[in-house]
Every structure is written in structure tokens, then in C-alpha cells.
Amino acid sequence: MNRAPRSPRAVMLAALLLNLIGFANYAAVLPEIRASTGLSEVQAGIAGGAFFLAYALGSPVFAGLTDTRDARRLCLLGAGLGIAGGLLFPLVDGSFAALVASRTLTGLGMAGTYMPGLRLLMESLPAEQQQKAAGDYVSTLTLGLSASVAVSGCLQWVFGWPAAFLGAAAAAALAGLLVRGSMPASRPSPQPSSLFARLLRVARGKDAWLVLLAAFGNSWEGMAFRTWWVALLGFAVALPGNEAYGAISLALVTAVVGPLAMPISAFVARRAEAGRRHRVIAGAAASAVLVGALLAAALAAPWPVVFLLSVAYACAIFSDAGALTPAMLVRVPVTERGAALALVSAASNLAAFTSTIMFGLILHAAGGAGSMNAWRLAILAITAGSVLTAGTMLLLDRRMGRP
User: Are 373 and 354 spatial neighbours (Cβ–Cβ below 8 Å)?
Assistant: First the structure.
């Protein structure tokens, strides 16, 4: 029998960071993949969206199963799927179909590790520490995305872009070993109702649909921007006057957002817990709309200005991410947390799937990835996500009134 770890929080945050290496490795090397394989903007969007669609479809299953199955075993299964996704492309096959299959497997792997990992963490802590741990775990997503881009960028720089996929497979294997060797098995309670019945019961809860809309809006903007960010900076570098910045590793410089965004997200989550939760989230979402509009307007500015604005935009987008999941968890009993996590994850990743493909479609329809107006239109289209988040949170704040 495994012993309870001295610090389950440290173990599960480390496992999450390792599993997230495969999250944004595709985005980190997207320009190199397109140059090597000739992917169109639409194909690039489809491959990026495949990850989020698989994540969206797998999340309700994996997260819901944590109510009745051992969360640790689910994490190990997810790690195995992540390993398969990293090895398939380009080690086995370098075709577009293999790329889509690879991102699908990686998405399923994330579904099997992210929410079950959160459930495993919360079950290993006293009740008074669980909400804070949930906020920290969700906030770590921004750091993990940056780690994914940084590690993938380094591997691409030294060994070529295929190494970014193989590195993700190795990281998933390490995460599985860490969870297997350090975390005890969870003890789910028998459930008298089916997963579908629990999902429906949570969805019908008071104002739950508004929280799900807010999560949809946050991910609509955040995941589309994260997927296309490196390509956007590549477009800006190619503009006249920015030649001096052509040697910069774009994947590596975008990794700076993690260390910046994570404490911001954790701060917003704690402010949300301490005060008017929904108004705090609405303010964070509104800041993303403003910075996104400013970035779209300033794309013709010198590259350092565009880069700094893009970093500020990413930080603003993810500032409310750590507060949205707890906003759903406080609405449900402990026995239905898995179903609540499943719905939040499904809403978030359906948004990411749609917006990532939509971004590529807008680029293609408005003149291609070399058109300034196309990039501006695509950025403005994804800012609609934070408009939705801010609006739903303000509505919730008005409904609930002052505490």
C-alpha cells in the first residue's frame, strides 16, 4: 500500500506541470511544422482544435468517473494516452492525419490527468485546505502552458521540431511514475445515480449555466490565443523594421507569461474567495477585452511593443482562470464534485476547439497569415470570449447581491 505523501500539493502540481508539456508543444513549433509539412491555416486550426475536442469529450467521462473510480488509476490511464500521442507524430507517421490523431490522443490524455488529478489532490487534503488547493492547481495551468512552450522550444532549437512531441511523451511517462509512486489510491463513494444523472443534476443547479458560460468564454479566448500566439509573433517579426528580432526564439520568449500570469491568477482567485467573487472575475475578464483590443490596434508597432502587449494580453486572459473552477465547486456537494469538474472542463474545451479552428478560418478568409487585417479580425473575434465571461459574472453578482 502506498503511503500518503508528505506534500500531496507539491506532488500533484509537479505531475500537472509534467503532463502539461504536451498541451502547447504543437503551438510552440507550429511555424516550423507548417514550413516543413505545408499545412494550410485551416489544417493548422483543425489539428489544434482536435486536441481541445478530444479534451472536451473525454473530460466529462474522466472527471465524472472520479465520483465512482480510483482517481489515481484514471491519472495513470491519462498519462498512457499522453505517451501514445507524443510518440505517434512524427515518430510513426508524419502525415496530417497522424498529426490530428496525435493531438486527439494527447487531448484525451489531458482529460484523464487534469481533472482526476485535481480530485486526487483534494481528497488527500483536509477540508479547510481544499478550496485553496483547487485555486492553486487551476492557476498552475498558466505556468504549465509556459513550461510546455519553453521545453518544446528548447527541444526544437537543439534537436528539431519532432523532439517537441517526443519530449511530451517522456514528460507524461515521468508524471505517471510520480503519481504511481507517491499518491495513495482514492476512495470514491458508491453513487446511487448514473454519471448522466449527476451531470444533469449539477447543470440544473442554481445559476450553474452562467458559470459554465463564463468558463466557455474564458477558454474561447485563452486557448485560441495560446495556440496562435507564436505564429502571431512570427508575423510581427516579418514586418518591415523588425528584422533585428528575427533570430529570437519566439516559443521561448512566450514562456515568460507563466511566471507572470500564475501569481496574478492566484491573487485573483484569493480575492474572489475573500470578497464578491463574481464581480472580481468580471473585472479580470474586462481587462482582457481592453488589452486585446489594444493589441489588435497596435500590430503595426515595433516588435517589442507588440510582444509586451501580447504578454499583457495573455496575463489578462488567464487572470480569472483560477477563480472560475472554484466558483462551480462551491455550488455542489462533495459527492458531485467530479460531475461539476466534468461540466466545467467540457464547456472550456468545446470553446477552445471552436475558437482555435475559427481563428484559422478567419485568417484564411481575410487574406491569410500574411495579412495585418486578418490577424486583427481574428484577435477581436476571440476577445468576445471575455465579453461573455464579464457579462455572465456581472449578472451573477446582481442576482446574488452583497454577501
Answer: no
DSSP 143-156: HHHHHHHHHHHHHH
**Length of the chain as a residue count:** 403
Q: At 205, phi and psi to the nearest 5?
A: -65, 165
Cell triple for 325:
473552477
CB burial of residue 204 (10 Å; 0-12, 13-18, 19+): exposed
Rounded CA-CA distance 246/23 in Å is 26
C-alpha cell at 40: 494550410
Smallest CA-to-CA distance from 225 within 141, 290, 318, 138 is with 318
Taken in order of first residue, the domains within the chain and their CATH numbers are: 8-182+195-400 (1.20.1250.20)
Q: For the whole model, what pTM was predicted?
A: 0.79
**Regions of the chain where pLDDT drops below 70:** 1-6, 189-193, 401-403
Distances (CA, A) of 320 to 165, 192, 279: 29, 35, 11
- Quote the pLDDT of residue 190: 63
Return the closest-CA partner of residue 385 out of 316, 251, 256, 285.
285
Q: How far apart are alpha carbons 109 and 74 in whole angstroms? A: 10
Its sign, for the CA torsion 119, 218, 373, 301, is negative
